[in-house]
Amino acid sequence: MLNINQRLQQIFGEAISTAYPGLENPPLTMMKTKSQKVSPREIAEKIVQNIPNNELIERTEIAGPGFINIHLKRIFVSKLLSNLLVNGVQPPSLKKKKKVVVDFSSPNIAKEMHVGHLRSTIIGDSMLNHVGDWGTQFGMLIAHLQDKFPDYISVSPPISDLQAFYKESKKRFDEDEEFKKRAYQCVVKLQSKEPDFIKAWNLICDVSRNEFQKVYNCLDIRIEERGESYYQDMMTAVVMEFEEKGLVQLDEGRKIVFAPGQSIPLTIVKSDGGYTYDTSDLAAIKNRLFDEKADIIIYVTDSGQAMHFQVVFAAAQLIGWYDPKVSRVEHAGFGVVLGEDKKKFKTRSGDTVRLMDLLEEGLKRSMDKLKEKGRDKVLTLEELVKAQRAVAFGCIKYADLSHNRINDYVFSFDKMLDDRGNTAAYLLYAFTRIRSIARLANIQEATLRKAAETTEVLLDHEKEWKLGKCILRFPEILQKITDDLLLHTLCDYLYELATTFTEFYDSCYCVEKDRQTGEVVKVNMWRMLLCEATAAVMAKGFDILGISPVERM
């Protein structure tokens, strides 16, 4: 697909440089600095006179003090829509493919995923998952495992509730000095890879992974796991590299690194010789740049960690691992999830909300909503369950993504399940309705495919024209969310597309029926193609947001 906005910028870029060949910056500001008397309207006129011949501009007009209004050629828009219908919704082509690594979700082994993981998991739904599976808490868990299940080497311990197991071991760690010492010894033995300790570590990780997977299955998220342990062997080499380059200072037994322009240092070795999060994050970024050969690395964590990542990125640049002009390394931070009382989202007893409980509550409420609308009377059981899952998980994801990720957002089931306004419930319903138009008029897919190749998409009615232009803004939206990683722009666009479609559908008959018999008298095929193009773009938008639409709802 063509990004019309970018193409117009190219055309006007040429017009400006032809009209004002000596100026690098916008003409008005440049001329003001050179104290030349010109009115914005004169500049606009000169630019318009120098617009090169092109395929898309019908005419321009200068409005007010010097705004240039652009009118597109209808035949050009029509051809782009036909192209979309024949070739599918394809993003604009790249000169070369880039590898993107996204570090997201980041649950901790031995702790349940809670509402705090919701945003990172949904926003970062992509391909790489960073897991906290190494470090002090493991010493504590292994020591507790040895006491509670001494024969764990030969008999798999029945740990079903890992959260309770974690709390028991944490209580002992905080209250019992002897146990605390043993826990620290266990960490050292784990890090030096003693077989019995690795076995204990694997047991705990497996129980956790099974729990995480239940959440990922609900949200339809596929991950490639990289635990902190994955980077363990690389940390020693990273510390040596910083030492060899003379970048390490000693501070009361700690080894620290100051990066230029940063007020706080990174601690790469603690005074007891252990490594820190700083060390594993440096090892991870080096691995992603050199071994994974990533062109773009994005870290999706809460905004509280912004400072930490700023220092890590600065240190990676200091040592020469990457040049920000060549590699894009970025922290995509987000605000916290609030309850309807505008305070941090907690259960009634003040505990953190378990993510699995939240998803199950979503399923229950979504089914109630569908039954309230009488959908259980018209859908088969299989269709009803599909719709239930699509609405429950789609609404939870969309409620998050439709807010600017930088801000905190209020979690409210009532708002997210409302089928009016900018919600997944409304969009899923709108999508199902669009998809049903052809089905109810008995138009086969093959007929639509053939029509896409042979029928011109007419845009004579103002609502057809408005919808056609709205559909073709999709590549521009994709470019914007790629640049700023703010997905609410895509949500706003999908909502605008759905409401623009409703205006079109209310004003333009796609299928004309006999009033007495209800039989189809006439099919306006170019309008059916506009329905198809709208649904195709919506489906691709849902796919990017990780939402699964259904054919019947």
From TrEMBL:
PROSITE patterns cross-referenced by the UniProt entry: AA_TRNA_LIGASE_I
Listed Gene3D superfamilies: Arginyl tRNA synthetase N-terminal domain (3.30.1360.70), HUPs (3.40.50.620), Isoleucyl-tRNA Synthetase, Domain 1 (1.10.730.10)
Enzyme class: ligase
Signal peptide span: none
Keyword flag Manganese: no
Family membership: Belongs to the class-I aminoacyl-tRNA synthetase family.
Protein name: Arginine--tRNA ligase, cytoplasmic
Native species: Labeo rohita
